[in-house]
Amino acid sequence: xxxxxxxxxxxxxxxxxxxxxxxxxxxxxxxxxxxxxxxxxxxxxxxxxxxxxxxxxxxxxxxxxxxxxxxxxxxxxxxxxxxxx
Length: 85
What we know:
Elements lengths: L9 E2 L1 H7 L4 H13 L3 E4 L3 E4 L10 H14 L11
Antiparallel strand pairs: 1-3, 2-3
Helix pairs in contact: 1-2
């Protein structure tokens, strides 16, 4: 998630285990969890491939303000502790 590994990078279980001085069992389990979260993909005969973190840009600030304003107009009580009329 830090961006150290590029999308499409190959991960070898043996190399990861050696790098972190652990057995291959926890690495294999970590790969399974990452695959379940969609961050890596197990490719037959290719190993584990980094899929990357899906990222979408945030909405423009004015869009967010307009949406929040509309919510406040419809439901003034949505602001806790507010004295909105």
